Amino acid sequence: MKLTRKQGESNSAFLYRFSKKIQQSGVLREAKKRKHRKRSISKRQKRISAIYRAGKIKETERAKKMGTL
Q1: How far is residue 16 from each of residues 12, 49, 55, measured CA to CA in Å?
Q2: Which residues are CB-contacts of 17 (< 8 A; sequence separation ≥ 6)?
Q3: Is residue 21 within 8 Å of residue 1, measured between CB atoms?
Q4: Stated pTM of the model
Q5: How far is CA 58 from the centre of its chain?
Q6: What region does 36 belong to: left with phi over 0, alpha with psi -120 to 50, or beta?
Q7: Domain extents for the chain?
Q8: Which of 5, 38, 54, 63 could form a disulfide with 69 if both were Cys (CB 3.0 to 4.6 A apart)?
Q9: pLDDT tens across 17-46, in order?
């Protein structure tokens, strides 16, 4: 998108027109979405966390059977 200042247009009027065009185009909304986007977890990291969870579940089951939990 390219905007140029019209002849005789003040800076504030041009800035207002520019910001209105940006909001209408959705560029700003998309940029804000991408700013707070979480990174995807790698396959390796998912596998490690799954193994950790499974180990914790086994520990709690064993503790329940022994009566320590």
Answers
A1: 6, 50, 59
A2: 3, 9
A3: yes
A4: 0.45
A5: 34
A6: alpha
A7: 43-69
A8: 63
A9: 999 998 899 888 888 888 887 888 999 999
